């Protein structure tokens, strides 16, 4: 296999023909040979990963083992939980697969394209259609689609941070390599492809943006922690319960000889299965998937499902101006001549028709129609210097921001003073200003010392009609806003004021302090920042995160890519650069900023509903664990059959949780999800355990038959479980009441329908049992109400502390 040096040499030999590119016949030949850029990579989770996540889990393994044991000993009636686990796995897999298909379709429809030279002309093709030896045409904002060797470079700078971790842009010259997945941040060039498809650098290292890589998710990390704890408890608790059940059956020797060990094994399995919070993982996956599909219908592509939760946790959002607050459609406003220098109209005409022209330069097309001659050379636009230049026979023409082309230190010149004053006045009206200057060409990429401003140009941007309403929403939700733009700070501040922000002035990012502590003071005291470079945008995001803020960053330009990648939640406009969309968590497909409140609302629904549902599941895990330990220590027969627990779980947790997890819920996010859940679940579990243990001990002392004790225990657990459901559903709406009522009807049917009674081995309770059931249920309900009262006080205190901490940031 050829090494990199051989590949580079071979590619350089193609430079002579790269201007023309490949012929159609050569392309067909390479397609036939399989030398294309086609690479099968899901834009979201693969089918196998979905099945594996929902089926091949440790807890499913425990459930399967218990299922097999019950079948082996002839207790198939108690193996209902096995079918429930299968149903959970199937439902979870189907829901996530449906979400995957919806997201894949959207990602496919919005996939980036590549520019290549074919048959002597430039063509835009799908990434998969790039073939070996194609000549790529690279411009600022493009993401390199395949590995290649540079055959022509004009100030070509490439950001390889997504591949190498190096954030500084790399200057590329003829013969240098460019890697797929890297981003062109400045200049332009061409490159001959020498590696495609699976052989390319990005694909071989799986360095392309993983569409389902997990973002920081408090829900998932908390649930994983609970599952880890349960894993450690299952084994020892199972042994403790098995020992108690064998002793309750007359001892190990007698139980083994008489066959009573089967009853002991069945009771042990009932205890173990009850400890496993199977449905909690299922509900989380379904809620994420359903949330992503709902947002997809609103033209929001969720590239990583936990991002639905993430945006609801955001407390500060950084916005780029162009394409976010404004529509990005730059309109030429007027030309304000400053010096009498002929030829400037033809220079502006040249800028307006270039293939790599940005939106500002394109807006000049049609306003200036004089045809210039061929340029001798040019300096491509750079987001760092914020100007570009072109050299004609009559000298060097520089187009850029007035304060960037002519820094303040040169303001002693009367003409430059006039430029500065006029630029500030125009910027204060919200118009964008550029200056066209003329000077003697230099040997390096610097503004000539003799440069003279010739004409001041103004441009207008249409403000998005939804911007003010969206920002008002964020203000009402206590989400801070910062505008970070590369434009003139006063222009940006004027636009910010138009959309309702309190921004009396803009801060010039060239004056940002080096010290991080001083930087945070500046960020806290200013809303608008102008003349911000890509590295500064990233630095602002990093500083906010270091201060404990949860940061969202929106943008559409390649200069936003580094900050979007660094933010907790990156949001890109679909009209933006391919590189920006590749690193974003969310993509607004129709570019409507007004979708962000919907995303926040969806995230809040996910968090609030999963927290409510988790309390149900964790309460069950808590009381199941405590019951197993208590009955193991007290050496009492475990008071449930697995089939009885299956019915109880279904009526009090499984079925209602499915509905509760998908209800609308606008509750604000408060950190500490797991702590709050356990603050309710653990004492509630203790309350249930105390009630059932007391009932079992009293019933045993009254010599009530074991079947009747099990019937009473199941009835107590179902009553308490439904009451816990009522408590956690408050305020009880009509729909919630309907769900709870249906569960009560299910309970009545389970006890009254003969077939169900016989299958579940329920018996009619005698008066002592009925009184014990009633007394135990009332006592446990009272304890649950006390637990909920204390829990709400703790939750309120957490909320107040969170507000204080946030205010101090």
Account of the 3D structure:
It is a single chain. The protein is an alpha/beta fold and 809 residues long. Helix content is 53%, strand content 16%. It has 31 helices and 21 strands. An eight-stranded mixed beta sheet has the order 8-21-20-19-9-16-18-17, with helices on both faces. Strands 1, 2, 3, 4, 5, 6 and 7 form a seven-stranded antiparallel beta sheet that branches. Strand 11 (377-382) and strand 12 form a beta hairpin. The protein is elongated. The model is unreliable at 1-18 and 205-214 (pLDDT under 50).
SSE diagram, text form:
Elements lengths: L3 H9 L2 H4 L5 H9 L14 H9 L2 H15 L7 H30 L3 E6 L2 E6 L8 E5 L7 E13 L1 H4 L5 E2 L5 E2 L4 E13 L5 H4 L13 H31 L3 H7 L2 H15 L2 H19 L3 E3 L4 H6 L3 E4 L1 H5 E12 L6 H9 L6 H4 L14 E6 L4 E6 L2 E6 L1 H4 L8 H14 L4 E8 L12 E12 L3 H10 L3 E5 L4 H10 L8 E2 L7 H10 L2 E3 L3 H13 L4 E5 L5 H6 L2 E5 L4 H6 L2 E3 L7 H39 L7 H19 L12 H29 L4 H24 L4 H19 L1 H7 L6 H42 L1
Parallel strand pairs: 9-16, 9-19, 16-18, 17-18, 19-20, 20-21
Antiparallel strand pairs: 1-2, 1-3, 3-7, 4-5, 4-6, 4-7, 8-21, 10-15, 11-12, 12-13, 13-14, 14-15
Keywords, separated by commas or semicolons:
8-stranded mixed sheet, 31 helices, 809 residues, 53% helix, alpha/beta
Poorly predicted runs = 1-18, 205-214
Q: Averaged pLDDT, please?
A: 81
Which range best describes the helical content: under 10%, 10-25%, 25-40%, 40-55%, 55-70% or over 70%? 40-55%
Strand order of the largest sheet: 8-21-20-19-9-16-18-17
Strand-residue proportion: 15-25%
Radius of gyration: 34 Å
* Helical/strand content category: alpha/beta
Count of runs of 4 or more consecutive helical residues: 31
